[in-house]
Design a protein that fits this description.
This is Aminopeptidase N. This protein is α+β, with helices and mostly antiparallel strands. It has 27 helices and 28 strands. The strands form 7 sheets. An 8-stranded mixed beta sheet has the order 5-4-7-2-1-10-13-12. A 5-stranded mixed beta sheet has the order 15-16-17-19-18, covered by helices on one side. Helix 2 packs across helix 3, helix 13 packs parallel to helix 15 and helix 19 runs antiparallel to helix 20.
């Protein structure tokens, strides 16, 4: 299917004025297809040729102003239209295919109880998988949607849903009971204000719903029935976060919430964390926790709620004109999500989590060949745009906005936002529009700031040097490499002479660094601090380094720094130095062993454990040293467990136990825990911990298929199906690997029952590649590069991304893997979604090879 180009979109936007869609969906036609009828009212500003998009199983009939069009003219999802100037009505009737990959209208049957659910995910250009549309963000229109659904189903959408009295005279607005008329019922959704095509949403099925009212609007939470008890257990927390954020946004923004309801549906097999459909936000239903989670994970869920709520203004009320301005959606929602959550809820440490866990996503992406500006000057087509929903558009963009607020002041920033919302309400906007509003509010040179921060790529670096001079004076000299101005804090710390290892803040200095490269020096009386921490408080986006004295102090006293955000900045610096081959991986592991057992912030613990167990132990140390690296991480976890033996900090204990299971190189201990149903001293092994234990035992060859299937019988449901797919693929035998490969790459799935869904594909891929199985997996490395391009082209962008992410040959850190990848890029013709992941994977692989070479030292002789 051809991607919509920027030039095509600009021409069509100039030609058409789209006013209204009447969409009628029939979900009662069986398991494979649904009915789709669309009437589009629009005007052509002049005579001209254009097209409407639709990707049907069967295009039944198309009329333009009552005149039949040739359905055979449909090609590559585009139906050509020849228009005279003036008003038009286009009617399209089609049968559409349900999706199994989380794109378009996804259909899911819950193995726990046999109930079926469908929901739409129409981002970025998948509306054409559901109904005919002029599918681009700047052709906003009113959407009037009707749905015919099976009896017993509830329909949710962008507006309040009512069962149609024409088909059910006694129907009233749905009460969340799931009760319906004896046969299929027709539902009508309140027409929307003008919104973009990609924001239309429908979710239908026998939902379990919890409802309330706030600010004179209906609020709802929805999930599949098999998760009802888990949603009920968390409903108070979910509503509390939602209400608090909703009220805080109204305090911060001049424009009120612009839609008639606020539903949050937790849906199965969702590809993203969530989607900002106005009035009906869809979330992956893993956020309905069926097992124990840490408080940091609850904070992450709350941040996603706050992020998606920000989109009601950033993206839904005011929508980007074209996909080069996705930062107007994602960067703003990311920044506001963290900020509003920290202001309005009990989760006050959000910026520490952002610093130590989220921000590294942006740093990593910005140092790869695939990097791009936060606001790229020209995105050529929709396929290219889809690849830019990455760490740059989210984490780097949010960091840039945090720096903008520090530079221009919070009052002027929110005044500029108010101006931006008011001027472009229910319309479209660009970077230039945003800059104009900010400059109008602040009177500052925002265009120059935007050019430096939003139009450039790469990460600036700050390197300090300190020395003590004559006359009781010390000097700090900072080398800045990069192209951006920065406002940042410099923390000066001293070790407490009465309590070695304990650090005290002497002073925090605010500094502005111009975009000009070079050195900046300051001096002060007294002795030099024991630790100079640039970007203390993490206000800017840059890599920081430590002078020699500060590095020695940090390695010895990191856990003694009082502020968790300052510790997060130092852990990030250590992480960057490992990745840049400036700090040996063994030194990072030693620092983790020295300081993590005393760390009080759970977000820091989880992030450091994840980096140590993942990239460090699996990729950055030589193959022969992997067991020793895992053993070091395991020892850290045991120290954390000992610290929590008396029941203190169950979240910390859970994080440590998870990683300890993943580090096991002998099966006996994990097998004993699984048999007992608990770890010594707790916690009880809930379903997630049981599947984690089983996966590690599978990797070690300590369980077989029968034991895995027995766990499915013990824990029936979708999560068990995914757990079984992971575990079966993680078995070390040649037959198990062959079966897993056939499930992922065969045309009909492992048993000839159809190709795996997006979630089952991902689960199988996560189990398949295990560094411990190098010998049996070696033949699959060249097969991955030979066969994945065809798989990605056949199954679409979601599977292409999963194959390039979870399915990449993990653990084969070798020049030959790099060679095969470069050859695939050159000759394999990967689709854009796979090409982008492959470029990133090969860059990470090259980085791992450089880290290994640097740690090994120069060759002998």
């Amino acid at each position: 299917m051809p991607a919509l180009t920027r030039a095509e979109a600009q021409f069509r936007a100039g030609l058409l004025d789209v006013r209204h869609y009447a969409v009628d969906l029939d979900l009662t036609r069986g398991e494979e297809v649904f009915g789709s009828s669309t009437a589009i009212a629009f005007a052509a500003r002049a005579a001209g040729d254009t097209f409407v998009e639709i990707k049907p199983a069967e295009l039944v009939r198309v009329t333009l102003d009552g005149r039949d069009l040739d359905t055979g003219a449909l090609a590559d999802g585009r139906l050509p239209l020849h228009l005279d100037s003036g008003e038009h009505e286009l009617r399209v009737e089609a049968a559409m295919r349900y999706s199994r990959t989380g794109e378009g209208m996804h259909r899911f049957t819950d193995p726990a109880d046999g109930e079926t659910y469908v929901y739409t995910q129409l981002f970025l250009d998948d509306v054409q998988r559901v109904f005919a549309a002029f599918d681009q963000p700047d052709l906003k229109a009113v959407f009037d949607v009707s749905v015919t659904a099976p009896a017993g189903w509830t329909v949710l959408g962008n507006g309040i849903a009512h069962r149609d009295p024409e088909t059910d005279p006694d129907a009233a607005p749905d009460t969340g009971t799931g009760a319906g008329p004896a046969a299929g019922a027709r539902w009508r959704l309140t027409p929307t204000p003008p919104i973009a095509t990609y924001l239309v949403a429908v979710a239908a099925g026998p939902w379990h719903s919890v409802r309330t009212e706030h600010a004179d609007l209906p609020f709802g939470l929805h999930c599949r029935r098999s998760l009802a008890a888990h949603l009920d257990a968390d409903a108070d927390e979910l509503f509390d976060v939602t209400r608090r954020c909703f009220d805080r946004y109204h305090e911060r923004f001049s424009e009120p919430y612009p839609f008639d309801s606020y539903d949050q549906a937790f849906v199965p097999e969702f590809n993203a964390n969530a989607m900002e459909n106005p009035g009906l936000i869809t979330f992956r239903d893993e956020f309905v926790y069926r097992s124990a989670v840490t408080d940091t994970e609850r904070q992450t869920r709350a941040m996603v709620i706050a992020h998606e709520m920000a989109h009601m203004w950033f993206g839904d009320l005011v929508t980007l004109r074209w996909w080069d301005d996705i930062w107007l959606n994602e960067s703003f929602a990311e920044y506001m999500g963290y900020q509003i959550l920290s202001e309005a809820t009990r989760f006050t440490g959000t910026w520490t989590d952002f610093a130590v866990a989220r921000k590294s996503w942006g740093y990593d992406a910005d140092q790869r060949p695939s990097t791009h500006p936060v606001a790229p000057p020209r995105v050529p087509d929709s396929a290219s745009a889809l690849q830019n929903f990455d760490g740059i558009s989210y984490a780097k963009g949010a960091s840039a906005l945090r720096q903008l607020v520090a530079w221009m002041g919070e009052k002027d920033f929110f005044a500029g936002l108010g101006d931006y919302f008011t001027r472009h309400r229910f319309g479209n906007a660009t970077l230039a529009d945003f800059i104009e509003s900010m400059a109008r509010a602040s009177g500052r040179d925002v265009p120059e700031w935007a050019d430096a921060w939003l139009r450039t790529t790469g990460v600036d670096t700050f390197r300090p040097e300190t020395w003590e001079g004559d006359d009781d004076v010390w000097v700090l000299e900072v080398e800045h490499t990069g192209r951006r101005p920065h406002r940042l804090d410099v923390g000066l710390y001293d070790e407490d002479p009465g309590e070695p290892g304990r650090m005290a803040l002497r002073e925090r200095l605010e500094h502005d660094y111009d975009a000009d490269l070079g050195l900046k020096s300051v001096s002060a009386e007294g002795r030099a601090p024991d630790l100079v921490l640039l970007n203390d408080g993490d206000l800017t986006y840059a890599k920081i380094r430590l002078d020699g004295r500060s590095r020695e102090t940090a390695l010895r006293c990191l856990s003694g720094i009082p502020d968790p955000l300052s510790r997060a900045v130092l852990w990030n610096a250590a992480r960057d130095m490992v990745r840049d081959a400036e700090l040996p991986p063994a030194d990072y592991l030693r620092a983790a062993a020295a300081h993590l057992p005393a760390e009080a912030d759970l977000a820091v613990v989880q992030a450091v454990l994840a980096f140590a167990r993942g990239p460090v132990a699996d990729d950055y140390v030589p193959d022969a040293d992997r067991p020793a690296a895992r053993a070091t991480v395991a020892a850290i976890c045991r120290e954390l467990l000992r610290r929590t033996d008396e029941g203190a900090d169950p979240g910390l204990r859970l994080a440590a136990l998870r990683t300890l299971i993943d580090c096991a190189d002998e099966p006996d201990e994990v097998r004993d825990w699984l048999a007992a149903g608990t770890a010594p001293g707790g916690p009880v092994l809930d379903p997630d911990l049981r599947w984690r234990c089983l996966k590690r035992l599978a990797v070690l060859g300590a369980v077989g298929p029968d034991r895995i299937e027995a766990e499915v019988a013990r824990d029936p449901g979708a999560s068990a199906q995914e757990g079984a797919a992971r575990c079966l693929a993680a078995l070390p035998g040649a037959d198990a690997k062959a079966a897993a490969w056939a499930a992922m790459y065969g045309d009909g799935g492992a048993a000839g029952t159809g190709e795996p869904s997006n979630y089952l594909f991902t689960a199988t891929a996560r189990g398949f590649w295990q560094p411990e199985h190098r010998e049996v997996l070696a033949p699959y490395v060249p097969r991955w590069f030979a066969e994945t391009p065809a798989l990605a082209a056949r199954r679409g962008a979601a599977i292409a991304a999963a194959a390039g992410r979870e399915g990449f040959p993990r653990g084969f850190v070798a020049e030959e893997t790099l060679r095969l990848g470069e050859e695939c890029l050159e000759r394999g013709e990967p689709v854009p979604a796979l090409r982008r992941r492959l470029v990133d994977q090969l860059d990470d692989l090259g980085r791992a090879l450089r880290v290994r070479r640097a740690a090994a030292g120069p060759p002998a002789g």
